[in-house]
Predict the structure.
Amino acid sequence: MTNWPMTLYRLTYRRALAVVFALTVAGCATAPLTSLDTPQRAREPDRALEDRILALDPASVSDEDVRGVLAKGPAPRIMLLHGGVFPVHLVMNSFGEFLVGMGYPEAMIRDPGQGDWSYSPYTSTARLAGIVAWHYERDGMRPMIIGHSQGGLYAVRILKELAGQYSDRITVWNPLTDSAETRTTIVDPLTRRERPVVGLSAAYASALGAGGWALVLPNQWESLATLRRIPDTVDEFTGYFIGVDFFALSFPGNPLDTPYEKNGAANVRNVVLPATYNHVTVPVTHDLPHNAQARKAINAYVPSSDAKRDSTPEVESGVLWAADVWYSIKKHWVLEAQHLIRAQRAGALPR
């Protein structure tokens, strides 16, 4: 586990609440994007850049690798899913800004239709699964899904939608027009063959503080026996628990607070964050990329190899959660970009 300097952990509970208040007042104002709907293939990397991407080690991606190599090439869609109580969506806005500050393309995080940073847990998971399919067909790379609170429950439900656990047909959903298309299949960009949306997979998904009181809502009803069973429609899934989290009903001795487990071949990790973390404000991370010490530590972070239920040191901010998620994002960004480039070079995908 990385030796974290204590100076990084001054984002206390009081300060985090102040940040959320400031975000609420400011509305997380950000300059509008001008090319959210620009296809990734329009900014095709040259062969030298492709070679540099192919040479990257997915398990060891430095800040220089991100800024000098990855950020100049293709990137998979990241779909952020916020919690359900207003204005908690603003904390996922903050995390979106964290990702951009660390080097991820903003246009590949924001909803290409409305420009929002994250999706609501009050839409349907079938719609979101249809958006996953639309992005994969368009970009040639599988999206990543990151959920907080109720959004974490939805991240898992999207994976189950893609696995066909709720329906054997999913309609493709166009996020540019925010409307359903008259088809339940896509042309797989890597094979050039038609295939159903059901059965598609995400590259990476995670859920932070998912469960608890939100489960009483009709849109979140789920059998407790299958609630945290992750299907094969994701390569890697990480479930994040806070040591004591009364929003998610996570606390020692609660028999319903079970770890996530694979229901097939997915790589599933469970990470227990310190009890000092606050359920609402963990994703408030937008200032971390601008702190030189924090940025260095986050980029140097390597998670434990224990795939069961890791524990992290007792610290006062959400920096470890951000570092763990960023590590996985970098890893799957490399893997998806490499897969795309190899497919292009093999002639499966037109340039």
Remarks:
- Residues 319-345 form the longest helix (27 residues).
- The chain has eight helices and 13 strands.
